[in-house]
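Predict fold of Indole-3-glycerol phosphate synthase; 259 aa.
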Amino acid sequence: MGTYLTKILDVKADEVSRLKQQAPDRRYRECEHDLSASRGMYAALSRGEGEPLRLIAEVKKASPSRGVLVEHFDPLELARRYADIGASAFSVLTDRDFFQGANDYLSTVSREFDLPVLRKDFIVDESQVYEARLIGADAILLIVAALDPLQLEEYIQLAHEIGLDVLVEVHDERELDTALERHARMVGVNNRDLRDFSVSLDTSLRLRSRMPEGIISVAESGLKRQADVLMMQEASFDAVLIGEGLLGDELQRFTWKQP
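Predicted 3D structure, encoded as tokens:
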């Protein structure tokens, strides 16, 4: 992969080296019995025949492509708004350098709501998996393009062992094959090309048809209109992950709530 992801991963490597000095694996073992039970994201995103698409609402202040999205950012206020319109789960950005996220944003949302919370970050080391559990996440994002296949499998297994669900993100057929071979149960198709940040909804439509039954399928990025969401619903996705698109009025008026 090229420019954007490479730059992000270089910065993340430095961040991880500092994190490992804090030994989150040891801290987890010391307090694991005191942690609240995880709220299952897989179960929250499962939908029966005829039920509306599930919404993972993203609590995000900024993005590398558009800069600051919410000037007076209040993660709780955003989360309340999204819960009111019928979100089934939250995604909270914790990457500081590129998305102006923070672990505290996730912890705050996790404490105040009963919905499962996905940690949205660039996870490249097992220390971040333990950290996710410690800060209150119920699930983590693993990006196939950021990991080698063995790392992907190891981190999926570790996450499940400590009570986290995993959304595995793919961008093309090769990455989808890798995700399925490494036993991913939830697969997110990112319509944004991490090499240049361009967006094509055709990516989701193309890859959905290759997913077997039993996989929770999530369409991510570039969904800004009701027509976009309906397209994903007709393609049999189980859920959509939307951040910027929810900042306008159109998708807040969509029928997310159960009948």
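Residues 213 and 254 are 27 Å apart (CA to CA).
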